[in-house]
Design goal:
By secondary structure, this protein is an alpha/beta fold. The chain is built from 14 helices and eight strands. The protein has helices at residues 19-22, 28-39, 55-63, 76-86, 103-109, 126-130, 156-162, 165-176, 181-192, 200-210, 224-235, 237-251, 265-278, 310-315; strands at residues 2-5, 45-48, 68-73, 93-97, 115-121, 252-262, 298-300, 323-329. It has an eight-stranded mixed sheet with strand order 1-4-3-2-5-6-8-7, sandwiched between helices. The chain is globular, with a radius of gyration of 21 Å. The relative contact order is 0.13. S-adenosyl-L-methionine binds at residues 54-56, 73, 100, 121, 128.
């Protein structure tokens, strides 16, 4: 974890150009509305678990003048751009190089006992999609990288070169929900026997050849699901999210709120389950009186998952698949339901 404090610049100074022009935050007004009751508390702290280029954080800092935001991101380039954008807010913003499942470790290092707000905007960021050389997009040829943190870890090319056929099929089927996963995996293994796959364009061509012509006519770009699956595998996204959800809930003060935006079904299902566990009575159904330790510790603030309306879609096409959920902490988590990776 590396802390990056925003420069001390007068709050009235204009925001640095660049990040603001490259990113339109999804469901921004709704996120602010859901967080508002918690962020009105004196000395409120919000953790933006997926800082990106800082769009949500900038809006929070402007809307709530007394709030401090701690922004986490594993992408050093995003931290750099967001730091420039948020420099006018001085020490009200602190950027930290970390994965979001480290949220409580970050708060402890910064001497913050709990957060009043937590925001997660999951998936790949606009920066990562738009930077062609990062290899996240199937639309343009680039090196097969796909790492959110370019300072460490295997690339997508490494995954394609080292996983066996069965493991490749599992990744494509599980994380991309690709029904032609076995055919694509078989083609990857066959192709790499003569020449390793190193470019996104090569992978796109291989996937297109592996999928029947009739199936290529529907469901969007034929390589979309393969690229999603590889990105999730390379960055261990679902593993990090599985750890991060209970950590983020434990980081919340009583009365605090957590807002999560998910963009694919696997992520949204995990968020739904974590919130549902906290919002449910954990006692056996036949007990005449529910003990305090088995009462819900979360309250669902949204009814199911909210989606983007027509106006949001027109303003920001990347909101098409968003599913937003929010919850409020009612009381501490009972000991028997704690599932976090570190001791409280």
């Amino acid at each position: 974890m590396t802390e990056r404090d925003a420069s001390q610049v007068p709050e009235g100074a204009p925001a640095a150009p660049g990040a603001a022009d490259r990113h339109v935050p999804v469901l921004l007004d709704r996120c602010l509305e859901l967080l508002a009751p918690a962020l009105s508390a004196d000395g409120a702290v919000m953790v933006d678990c997926t800082l990106g280029m800082g769009g949500h954080t900038e809006a929070v800092l402007r809307r709530f003048p007394a709030v401090r935001v701690i922004g986490l991101d594993r992408d050093t380039q995003a931290l750099e751009l967001a730091g420039e954008r948020l420099a006018p807010f001085g020490d009200r913003f602190t950027g930290v190089h970390a994965v979001y499942d480290e949220i409580r470790d970050v708060l402890a290092e910064l001497g913050v006992p709990a957060a009043q707000g937590v925001l997660m905007d999951l998936g790949v960021s606009s920066l990562q999609l738009d930077e062609v050389e990062r290899g996240f997009s199937y639309a343009k040829d680039a090196p097969l990288d796909m790492r959110m943190d370019t300072t460490s870890g295997p690339t997508a090319a490494d995954v394609l070169a080292t996983y066996d056929e069965r493991e490749l099929a599992r990744v494509l089927r599980t994380y991309g929900e690709e029904r032609f996963a076995p055919r694509i995996a078989r083609a990857i293994v066959r192709e790499r026997a003569t020449s390793p796959l190193s470019r996104t364009g090569e992978l796109v061509d291989l996937v297109r050849r592996s999928i029947p012509a009739a199936a290529r006519q529907t469901g969007g770009h034929p390589a979309k699901r393969t690229f999603q699956a590889l990105r999730i595998e390379v960055n261990r996204e679902l593993e990090a999210l599985e750890n991060a959800l209970p950590e983020a809930i434990e980081a919340l003060a009583v009365g605090g709120r957590i807002v999560v935006e998910a963009y694919q079904s696997l992520e949204d299902r995990m968020v739904k389950q974590a919130f549902a566990q906290g919002a449910s009575v954990s006692a056996p159904p036949d007990l005449p009186v529910v003990p305090e330790t088995h009462q819900p510790y979360l309250r669902l603030v949204t009814r199911g998952a909210e989606e983007a309306d027509a106006a949001e879609l027109a303003r920001n096409p990347r909101s098409q698949s968003v599913r937003l959920r929010a919850a409020e902490r009612l009381r501490p988590t009972p000991d028997h339901l704690r599932t976090t990776r570190r001791a409280a």
